[in-house]
Here is the input.
Amino acid sequence: MFKVVAGRKLYEQLVEQIKSMIAQGVYQKGSLLPSEKELMESTGVSRITVREALRILSQAGVIETRRGKGSYVLVDGSELGKGVEGFSEYRKRFREAGRARLIIEPEAVRLVALTASEEAIAEIGRCLRHPQDTSEETGEFHKAIIRALKNPFLTEFLDRLLEAQMDAPVGALVPPNRQKGVQQKLERQHENIYRAIKSHNGECACCYMREHTLYLQRQYEEYFRCFY
Here is the structure.
């Protein structure tokens, strides 16, 4: 039975309760969820609320909605509650590292665009991610930018920030049905950053890096919100 908690949006509550039922094994991986109409009748919420909840679960890779067929569960119940103990501290560390990166990295890349040698810029270009590369090599693009600063203090500081988030690459936190689109966007963002550096356009490099960093943080937050 759907229980309404005051002060929380209805669709968020419905998301949590559907996740809870999956975690408890009420809905198994591959099983069909109740239809929109059935969910409306059993919960007493509007069609808009049901559709928004299903949209969020679909974007998170928890379910897949097939036109004319309904919504199917894509994950095992154990995946939804995994690692909850200590997770609050884990998420806090990600958020703090993300905020620090947002302050430091855009200005760092602005400086690189204005002062880096052609040799350092060429090295950044060689580290651009390609589809066959690993997540570690994705991090090398950012590390090459840091190395181009030739400032040991900034290098050490930014290395620690990157490591705080690179131990869980964003690709590993994106559900399978969204990984290709997210990866392509990350590659385009890297290309934009590199082109701005190569043309010594500090302002564009700064803006592109800020956009890229914000996008990464949104991907992490979406994962944290839907899986914990």
About this structure: The chain has a mean pLDDT of 83.
